[in-house]
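Table 4 source record.
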Amino acid sequence: TINPILLTVDEEYNDDSYEALVSWGEEVLEQFLSSPCCSSWKNNKKNIAGFFIHGFIDYAYGYHLAKPFQYDEMLVEDMCLDILPRKMSTNEKDFKQVAPALSTFFEWCETEGILKDTKAICIKLKKIDGKIYEAAKDPSNWGLAKSLLY
């Protein structure tokens, strides 16, 4: 069952919403990564996918107050071309897995009845796939903490 707070729109940051979102994200991510659609993935691929999906859910709320039921193409583009490359510190080649991992996750969520209408998001992810890696390897897109690491 979905916590009703995840279906509400927040006008400002809300600790209860964030905690419910983190709990939802961990539960759904665990189900996804142990599902048949990820069964052929090696552990490294599962770890990278989990890292980006968790980061996406976390930062989408932190920067846009967006919960999974509010995601749209504009949010996905901003998250993948600006926020994730700026905030997520990992090997830049891992960013080549962002679009495929998120697309697979969103498609799985729709198949499982967890999210609706993910087709437009998945189309957007396919369109920007190559740009995500380019954004991630450009140091001018990095935030301060990431700049200090790399």
